[in-house]
UniProtKB/TrEMBL annotation, chain A:
Organism: Cognatishimia maritima
Protein name: Multiple sugar transport system substrate-binding protein
Top-level taxon of origin: Bacteria
A Pfam family of this chain: SBP_bac_1
Record's keyword terms, sorted: Cell membrane, Lipoprotein, Membrane, Palmitate, Signal, Sugar transport, Transport
Entry-linked SUPFAM superfamilies: Periplasmic binding protein-like II (SSF53850)
Keyword match Isomerase: no
Location (main, coarse): periplasm
Similarity comment text for this entry: Belongs to the bacterial solute-binding protein 1 family.
Automatic annotation (TrEMBL), chain B:
Primary location: membrane
Stated name of the protein: Multiple sugar transport system permease protein
Domain ABC transmembrane type-1 residues, every copy: 81-268
GO terms, biological process: transmembrane transport
Lineage of the species this protein comes from: Bacteria, Pseudomonadati, Pseudomonadota, Alphaproteobacteria, Rhodobacterales
Organism: Cognatishimia maritima
Amino acid sequence: MKLSAKLAGAVSGLSILLSAAAVSAETLFWSTQARPAEEAQAMRTDVLAGFGPGVDYQPNEEGPWLTRLKAEIEANSGSIGVLGSLHGVFSSLNADDLVDLDDLGVSSSSATFNNLAKLGTDNMQYVPWMQASYIMAANKEALQYLPEGADIDALTYDELIQWSANVHEAVGQPKFGFPAGPKGLKHRFFQGYLYPSYTNGVVRTFASDEAVTAWEKFKELWEHTNPASTNYNFLQEQLLSGDAWIVFDHTSRLAQAFNERPDDFVAFPAPAGPTGRGFMPVLAGVAIPKTAPNMDEAKELVKYLLQPETQIATLRATSFFPVVDVDLPDDLPPAVRAAGDAVAKMSGSSDANPGLLPAGLGSMGGDFNRVFVDTFERIVLAGQPIDRVLADQKKTLQKIMDETGAPCWAPDAPSEGACPVE
Amino acid sequence: MSDATVSEIALPRAPGKAGRYVYISGVVLLCAWVLIPLYLLLVNTLSSPETVNSFPKSFIPEFDLGSLEFFTGFSGMLVALKNSIIVAAITMVLSILIGAPAGYALSRFDFRGKELFRLLILLTRAFPLPLLALPLAVLFIRTGLDDTAFGLALVHTTLAIPFSVLITFSLFSGIPIELEEAAWTLGCNRVTAFQKVVLPLILPGITASAIFAFVISWNEVFAAAVLTIENRTLTAFLLQTLSESPLHLKFAGGFILVVPALIFIFAVRKYLFAMWGIANR
């Protein structure tokens, strides 16, 4: 009696569930970005609420995100309307599975980004959506020591070194600050800034003659760097404490300084070297899978996301910056305003040479970063000969590239198969 | 030699006192093992963000409901909670309906390949879900099971079945066949004997495997994240957003995830204790 009653209950429960598989008319926005609870909530209520037909915003970790997408493509039937992710993830996808988006008439204001979004094909595979980056910041006290004729918005590495030297001489203390602490993002500086600016590459040119020059320059800069930098992780702290006057870090790791004392600091683009103004954007894009259930609405959503008002709402929700030309309103937090300005100048500069976050390394991303950290520690901190260290580390780097088979990414020239260390 | 004899004689008396201390401290330790993390979770859930981030920690909650309030406004929470309960319930029912007869057959009948079968049933746990999720999702999309609580429950049932088979197998083995035989001689057939004699005896064991099934389903993230979209479970819904959230939201979200599972286990605990009664017999 008891068992049969249980059974009946279960069966009726199942039938209700199966019949209740409701079809929702909302466009499913399948994203790997804006995952933290507060950001996801802000995306839903502040950014996407204005889209008429309705959006179901679902942030996911990369694993489930990719598995679900692959399954829908393989089954040739999908529920995902719009995909949101980083450039590195899109570049690992098959471009045929994404709808060409040229006819939408929306793109970012950066030709570089639009080119990256083609993923090596002739058509836009995704539309650049938002960006973050690493920038420079300085205490206004330091501005008086700028070398003659130097434009703070178009500095070169030589001018930066000279500037730091001037400050060092005038104040009697090295005041350049570098995130070389255990949790600092120093490896990103080498991968995305120093190497592209001097060698126009990261992997291929790792041990080139130009790389030797780059490390020599960095050693010069280190002369004027606060030696306590090996303990700095978030340069906002040293900006605020005055231990460093000129610093490099991730936009979000400088935010607190600008928000607490907006009038005391300036943000500006990273310097340029012989092969351009190397910088590493974190570029997120939106794409439409070919299996999208409602293609028109998905396209409308992509257009909506690229509207200036939506881009500003996205900036507030996620602290990621617009990729289109917008007039930033006055009521943005000071950090967002300052950093946004610097990032825009950097990506819009005529000598911009964007590098990308390493892609295709999978679980070996940490080992890849380690190569650059070790190289830094041996050359700069331990003072070992540059040639020898680069020759040593080259082997480790080549092994990582061979094991993962990761192809080259910008600014390295594309490769067939694993990216070679030349 | 004589020393050894003395100490051998002295031994049985010593545990009387020392043993009690060991026993009591063991109990205290085990309770603390379970209760302290839960208590800290509760304290931090009910604290303001500033307190959560500060150090040293207070052991007294300040009853700041800010973190929990955030989740009341978090769209989709209640639906996800409902889905989690539905999926876990179906998983429980299915894994018992399939697992208990299999356990009964394993303990009562001899057939070729029995040992192999017992081994193979564990193999369903040998393949990681991220590996299986892609083909499963493709199959589900094609058959229309995709994004249904029932479809996800099928996957969770597959994960839970090894436990329910092996638990019920050992339980059935612990019940002498003579009890059943006696029932047969008194007018029962196989089914009624099972229903009237065996079932009441193994109910605690069924409860235990039900708890396993519930917990497995409740905690599973990957398949849930891939196979459901509208009908997302609470774990898939929350866990992915929590790992990068500020600390106070992590605590509150963790609390929300733990409480329903705790309530369920409390609700069925008396059946569970009854099982241990059998085991001690």
